[in-house]
Amino acid sequence: MHALFEQRCNINSQTSRHHGNCDIDWKEMEAMFHDLPIVKNRHTLYSQFSKLPIETILNALGPWLEQARVNDVAGQRVWRVIKDMSAFWDIETKKAVMETVDDDRLRLHLFGLQLPEYRRTKDLDTLLAAIPSAASDELRLKLYNTMLNVCLRQGKLDHVEQLILRMKDAVKLDAVTFNVWIRTKLVANDVIEANAIYENMIESGIKPTVVTYNTFLKYACREQRWDEMTLWLNRLQSTSKANSVTLRILLGAVSEYKDHRVVSAFSRVVISCSFALPSTEPLLNPCVTALLRHKRTDAALQVLKRLFVQYENDVPTLSAFNLLIHALAQKGECKNAHEILRCMMNEKGLPNPDIVSFATLIHGYLLSPTSANVESVLELYQQMRNQGISSNTTLQSILLNTIAKSRFADIHKATALFQLMIKENEEQLALLPNERDQSTVYDKINCLSDRTVKVDTRRSMSQSVMYNVMMDGYFTHHRKLKQAHAPYLLLREAAQKQILTTSTLNIWVRGLCLYQNNLSAAERIVDWFERQGISMNERTAWYLVKGAYMLNRVDRAKHWLHVFEEVKGHVIYGSGLRQLKMKILKETSKAV
């Protein structure tokens, strides 16, 4: 390199005599090609180099490219510097280098630098003029294929057709060419012509690639042509193997559509694909999720088994463990899923469970709320708290709702769990900013005190849901036991916290009127809620009218219809109340 350095110094001395504005420090340039700290003024050097005579640039490039062809660290560094400095060359320099320097890698790179100009101007002639006249057939084909891709991405389908015509006379088309050509037709929705090009491809002796089949698959999924999708998948799997692109195409389809053919195709590909792990776990995890959503539990477990077996030194992620728990629970193997969770809690090196881990298993147990399963759920919830994991309103609501309504549950245990959740909820809410807005005024009635407070909507919403779930569960639980109990204590607590809603009203009206056949109590509760500023809605009216009709109290049924429509001025929209009204009016008119 020392001799080359001296030679470049001579070049520099000559050029400095004739081109005073093109002085360049060749010693600094030389440092760019060594494993030294990055030269601070490298962009200045690149700019100075680009202004040298083209002959000087060509002479300098030769030895550099020779070193860059060596596939080692030094060669890679030289190539990186060449690429960086080429960005400073003008169009004439790029064309001269492409015509003169016999290095296809550099020619492809320089051609790529001219593509943004096409994207801006859509001038195809500019790209065609950039193809070196001395380019080999192999390079010429690569450049043409590059142009095809760019034209297609820019939506210039007419340019694609023009290039194809030129290519037929200039080069031998390859699989890449045919694939882009097929995509062009499918973008234009010309599936007949795309199929004809596919047949032409085979007749020309060019074997279709996975890209070919993926192109047709993507189109078939986009247009929901499931029979065609199955055809192209069969062709793909008969000649080659599906890849991650195939999987992503079908994953997108199965995430949007529920047709059994796309679900079956997706299952086939997921099971048959072999990918290097753990790098592809981020792809396989959503695939397993999709399989579970479509109830392909066995296929999901098959993929998960392969995922866990292929790990050696690495451990699957927490997401993978949660999916395994989900799959086992969905299959009804909650004990096995529970064992996985225990391992996560007790064995070092495994990811610690999170709320998803516990919630997934809890949901699995609640799918069949037997006495033993309810006990397991209560144990799990306590373990989750012991792990320092905070619950959320969704999990709490589902848990309370299922346990309280289960005929196997001890309502006292459910109440204790509810109190625990409320305490936990209040502890979490205490951490929220104390932003409040005006609430309604609660009048003193019966045992409920008259209080006026400001309540933050975010603070009240979660507790309102919890109380509603518990009150609803209480009514349902005792209905199954044929016992007439009403959770007045819970109602009083909810009123004191000022978290009553129309949903609370409807829970009480349904519980009293339909579950316990106590129309009078239901009417009193409606009046009481009205005094709290909470009015009835159409669902409330339906419960009252339905309950009155079931008790043969047609007078009260008509009364509540009158209140809802005439007094409140509401219009009946739901078919349930509208049909019940017509039935009552029809029967009363006959009686008259």
List segments where confidence is low: pLDDT < 50 over at least 5 consecutive residues. 1-21, 435-455
- The averaged pLDDT comes out at 85
- The level of helicity is over 70%
Please tally the helical runs, counting DSSP H or I stretches of 4 or more residues: 32
Shape: elongated
Rg: 37 Å
Biggest sheet statistics: 2 strands, antiparallel
If strands are numbered along the chain, what order do they take across the biggest sheet?
1-2
Structural class based on helices, strands and sheet pairing: mainly alpha
Q: Report how far apart the termini are.
A: 116 Å
How much strand content do the residues show?
under 5%
Count of individual beta strands: 2
Keywords: Repeat
Pfam families: PPR, PPR_2
PPR repeats: 174-208, 317-351, 354-391
InterPro entries: Mito_RNA-Proc/Resp (IPR051240), PPR_rpt (IPR002885), TPR-like_helical_dom_sf (IPR011990)
Provide a descriptive summary of the structure in words.
There is one protein chain. The chain is mainly α. Among the domains are: 391-432 and 441-483, no CATH class; 501-592. The protein is 71% helix and 1% strand. It has 32 helices and two strands. It has a two-stranded antiparallel sheet. The model is unreliable at 1-21 and 435-455 (pLDDT under 50).
Tags for this model:
592 residues; mRNA binding; mainly alpha; single chain
